[in-house]
Amino acid sequence: MAEFLSIHVSDASLLGCVLRRFASRVSLGESERAAGVGFFQSDDLLLRKRPLGGQPALPEKLAEGVESEAALICSGAAGPMTRAFNEQLTLPFRFKSWLFATAGQPESLAPVRAALLKNLPDYLRRSVKGDSAAEALFFTFLSRLRDVGRLDDHDLDAETAARSLAAAVGETERAFEQMGQPLPGMAVVVSNGRVMAALRRGHPLLVGVVDGLIPCQRCEIGPAANELNPKVKSHRTLRSAMVLSGATSVDGFREVAEREVLAIPRTLTDIRSL
How confident is the model at residue 177 (pLDDT cuts 50, 70, 90)? Predict the structure, then answer.
C-alpha cells in the first residue's frame, strides 16, 4: 500500500523540526519494500530512494538531514516489486520541476496505461522512463499543464495546478469507464516546491497546517524560551502545510472530503478546495 506525506514549510532549516513534532503519530506503513524522498535545494530537484529492509516508513527518518522548503516523502512502489530494489518504480516520480506521488494500490492503474500514453504529446511520451501506469498518470497531469501553456511556468498558481491534476485523474477515470471498470481508490499529490495540489478519490487523505513551532523538542525550545534568541523567532513565525495519505485521524489535520481537490499556494495561507 503506497502512502505519502507532502510538506511545504516557510523555513527550510525547520523541516526536520516539523516532522519531529509528528514523529510519534505519522507513519507511512510498515510492510513496504522501498521508500523515497523528493526535495528542492536552490534550483535543483533531488531524489533519494532506498529499500526499507522491513523497517517502518517514518517520515522523520526518511527525510533525515534534508533541509528544504518542500519535500515529498513516500513509501511503496508504483508497480509490482521483485525481491530486488527497483528505483524506477519507487515513488515519488519527478519531471522538470515537478514531484508526483499516488497512494493506494498504484499497480491497479495498469489496465489504462496504454490509453493514457496514447494521448500524450510525443515529447512527453518519450520522457516516460518506466512501465508503471502511475507514471502515465503523472505525465497526463504534465500534459494538461502544457495544454494551458504553464508546464514551464515557475510562477504557476496553485489553482491551475489543482485543476490540471483533477483533469488528469478525470481522464484516467474515463479510460476505466470505457473498459466497464470503476476508477481504483487513490489519493494523488503534486508539488513544484512552490505550490502543491492534491485530491482524494477513494483513499484516505488528510491536510494540516502548523502556525508556529513552540515548543520544539528537536531544538530544545520550551514555552518560556527567550524571545531574543533567533531560533525562537524563526520557530514562532514558522508556517507549514502538509498533506498526508492513509491516516484517518491525526491531531491538527482535517480529513479531505471524497472528490475534494486541494490547492495550496506558496504563501501557505488560504488553502482552497476546488
Answer: very high
